[in-house]
Amino acid sequence: SVPRASASPHGTGMHPHTLLSDSAPDSSSDAPTLESLPPELIAAIVETLKLPWLGRFACCCAAVAGAVRHAEEAWAAVWASLTGGVAPAPLGARAAVRSLLTLDQAHWRSLPGSSGEAPDWRQHGCVLTCSGGTRLILFGGRDGRRFFCDTWACDLASGAWVRVAAHSDARCPSPRCFNSDSGGGRVLRSGEEEWAVLHGGLCAPGYRDRLTWLLGPLSLPPKEWSWLPASPPDHVEGAAPVARFHHTLTLLPRREAAGDDSLALLGGHDRTISPLLDLRLFSLRHASLPRKASGVAAASVSVGWSSSTHVLGPAPSPRAFHSAAHYDHPAAGRGLLLACCGLGPAAGGEEVFAALDDTWAFDLSSGRWLELAARLPHGFARSRAALAVSRDRLLLAGGCRARAAALATYLPLTPGPAFDDVWLLDLRRGLLPSELGLRPAAVSAWERCVLPHERAHRTPHANATAGTLHGGAVVLVLGGHDTFLSPLADEAVDSFGDLADEQAWALHETEAIVVGERPERTEARLCTRGAPHSCGEGGASPSRRQLVGGARMLVQGLETQAHINGSIGTVVSRASGSADGRVDLALGPPHSKSISIRCQHLRPSRSEARGGMPTIAAPGGGGDGSALWVISPVERAAGEGRAAEAPSNPPRRVAVSCISVLPQPEHEGSA
Prior knowledge:
The protein is mainly beta. 45% of the residues are buried. The longest helix is centred in the first third of the chain and has 12 residues, at 72-83. Helix 2 (39-47) packs across helix 4, helix 3 packs across helix 4 and helix 5 (72-83) packs across helix 6. Helix content is 8%, strand content 29%.
């Protein structure tokens, strides 16, 4: 044990300041320095320190610095405190922590194309990950001319696709897509089993249904999966939710290993484009599910949505285009559904489609809504924002303002200007334990998070997805649209208020964020390393239409100035007198300079072709993984297999890419 420091300066114990000093001891004193301690004692001290003190302590003493470098158990504890899990064995805890906190290894990776049958490309399908992140499920979608109802599974280790549930086509969901339906579904765990749950969707132009379907059990081989309709029990009235769109579907993970996940459906617009409030919960807890031992023989599953509309106390106003996330409060031990912002009637106002700035928490144990004191500052109310929980903080990114009141009578769902900001809310300070479980703190506030200027060249995002990795330690903001539209550019917005593909951001505009102890210590980086299928080296160069002033471009493929590859800049103008297709490009931080570059080395940040917007996979019931998966279109190779039932589709197939922040293992190839 470390000798206790004496209260007297003349005592025999070591003084705390002596412990933190490298300098030689006073010749008149026999007190030992830190350098003179046995290595075993230094290692024991290092393994008991928290992350901030490890760095400070290592700066004071070379012996401690050496111990820190080799104290794998200490770094494993740091990794566990950041992610709640175990550090990846091939990489090591210290290297994993470094990659996580610096984000310098964030990269994209593409799976090899399947040599066998593979699904034709479709947009707005339901894409889910399951089986611990080892498989991908794809259902439905549309290709611009027709809707799909086929179901596919992809092995994420090999990239091979297989058609599943083909034997149950007579009783499977009708053809549909999910362009405004929060992804269309999630994967739920019930005991030892996993089931994919599908809800709603656009079945034909202007028609949405309110049916719920189950696919599984997912523990069986994919060829044995079947679709089962979820029918409400006979004794439950009104168990099926109202058909809607622009709602949220939030996975509520189980708190016990033998428990059941739940799915929360909140808000949205009904068929008359009126905002809704009702909260519905779906769980397989009381469902009589066929198990893998008996196979799937049932015609349907008797299970419905429970209603949480009749709650005591205040409740949020009806809304759509809002944001929602799940949070487990560590002090109270309660699960919460968090909801904020959106488009709906403002309190005390007459506008039906006003941007909202409030924040609410639904206590899943007591069934009460709690309004937090935190509101966004005046002028920052928004809808279509990305929301995620990271290290007990609620992170809000992007979104857009409501449309100007003078234009709101014509297509009122059309978005206003987009935001490019990030806000943080401390949930442990905003929600305090009480006798009733939780209560809102009298004072709590959103804090503007100023990201490191030299690492992030930000873009305004609306409808972006906030995905989390490694237990919420890393937040990825990806996808979404730019809403820079002239007042008359309504052809870019459909009747549902959804933006067209020309406004969609490419995948290399993905931003990785690690929330620090304070907002000013938050790290961020654009993920331009590697290449997803949609912007690979073989992709098309930007067209003349895309090379307009202010357009954002990714630099790729330079050999003489390779350090510029992965940078993002904006087009200044086409280089005057250039005969080799050069443009003048203003690079963002950290380069912050203008260059003249050939078009063949540029990839546009926004798509020009319709029907090519990538779809982001919803994570499975196992929680946050180490990678986030995306499907995007690529051209089919000559003679490549394709779905036999869709011979008229364009020659494009579904390709799979993923993004991660840890180095790629060597046996999987170079990143």
